UniProtKB/TrEMBL annotation:
Name of the protein in its database record: DUF4401 domain-containing protein
Transmembrane intervals: 51-68, 99-119, 149-167, 179-200, 212-234, 240-259, 266-286, 292-311
Keyword Membrane tagged: yes
Keyword Signal found: no
Highest rank taxon of the organism: Bacteria
Protein keywords: Membrane, Transmembrane, Transmembrane helix
Organism: Candidatus Williamhamiltonella defendens
Length: 338
């Protein structure tokens, strides 16, 4: 299986022409009855060898951390990070393997960050030092290997460090869950804006920029969705008709936004809350939990599958409502068949 990035690499190496690459993409789209722009592709695995390499790499990284960690815990983590970087030089730069790239980049970033746990004695700044080191490690790894998930890892580290700093500096936040939820939501908006920036750089979704945007959308989704449902009282345990209506309205708005930007992460992130609210309300009507969950899951699953089938037609309808000044920054809808 060849990705868009592989095809672009062949074009840049003058192995195939840009016209041939365009014709190849159109041929694949016609066979699959879909448009590559609309399918939200991202590279995860290129073959079972990816899984084989990941298992072997994890065994090597964990054993390195344990053996060297006998001298000092931080040395074990730094040795594991060094090993992850060395493996990245071969499996990412030379072999361009998808799944090992994700695992090795995360292993490097996490190992570097956690090494400060044993070096920083002050508990009040320990988490901040972890997030700082993780963000620096993510930046260095990105500059060298350009693994898309690394941008999301570094962004997440910065977000955690910022939230933790606010938590320490302003004690009133600690006892004010709605305020803290609002802060998380605002950070989610910033991450979402960053994801949209990367999306706008490649609206045809043919380069690794779209993979960067994909991981950023996955990071932004829970930061946006969870605070909203917390603020409307979904997690309070006192669910009623008002919460049900609000959850339904919010999920419809999330679905419309997902259609506009052609990203499904927000809908997936909110799915658990919808299941929980409607299942809890059915339980109040003397229906046992198993049956109520099955009914809600059946209806919701059928609705989502129906949306998946008519995703492109729905997108075309939603995009017609957008002004051209906005529509040019989001992926177009090219599919014309049912």
């Amino acid at each position: 299986m060849y990705s868009n990035e592989d095809i672009e690499s062949a074009v840049n190496a003058e192995i195939i022409s840009s016209q041939t690459a365009y014709a190849l993409r159109k041929h694949i789209e016609s066979r699959q009855k879909t448009s590559a722009v609309d399918e939200e592709h991202f590279r995860l695995i290129t073959g079972f060898n990816d899984i084989f390499v990941v298992i072997a790499s994890l065994l090597l990284l964990v054993s390195t951390e344990i053996i060297v960690g006998k001298l000092h815990d931080s040395l074990g983590l730094l040795a594991s990070a060094t090993m992850a970087w060395g493996l990245s030089e071969y499996f990412i730069r030379k072999r361009c393997m998808a799944l090992p790239a994700i695992i090795l980049s995360l292993a490097f970033v996490i190992s570097v960050g956690l090494s400060s746990v044993y070096l920083v004695q002050n508990p009040s700044i320990r988490l901040f030092s972890i997030s700082l080191l993780m963000s620096l490690a993510a930046w260095c790894h990105w500059r060298r290997f350009h693994v898309p998930i690394t941008v999301a890892a570094g962004t997440g580290a910065v977000a955690c460090g910022f939230l933790y700093t606010l938590w320490l500096e302003f004690p009133e936040i600690q006892n004010n869950i709605p305020l803290f939820s609002m802060l998380i939501f605002l950070i989610g908006l910033l991450v979402f804006s960053l994801a949209m920036y990367w999306d706008a750089l490649d609206i045809q979704r043919q380069t690794r920029r779209t993979d960067v945007a994909f991981w950023l959308h996955l990071l932004a989704a829970p930061l946006l969705v969870h605070p909203v449902f917390i603020m409307i009282g979904v997690t309070s345990g006192e669910l009623g008709l008002l919460q049900m209506v609000l959850v339904l309205i919010i999920y419809i708005l999330i679905a419309l936004l997902s259609l506009k930007i052609d990203r499904r992460a927000l809908m997936v992130s909110a799915l658990g809350y919808v299941l929980y609210v409607f299942t809890s309300l059915l339980n109040k009507t003397a229906v046992e939990f198993t049956k109520s969950f099955a009914v809600v899951a059946f209806v919701l699953g059928a609705a989502l599958l129906l949306l998946s089938v008519f995703w492109h037609q729905s997108r075309r309808w939603v995009l017609c409502l957008l002004p051209s000044s906005v529509a040019r920054y989001i992926p177009p809808c090219k599919r014309k068949w049912p």
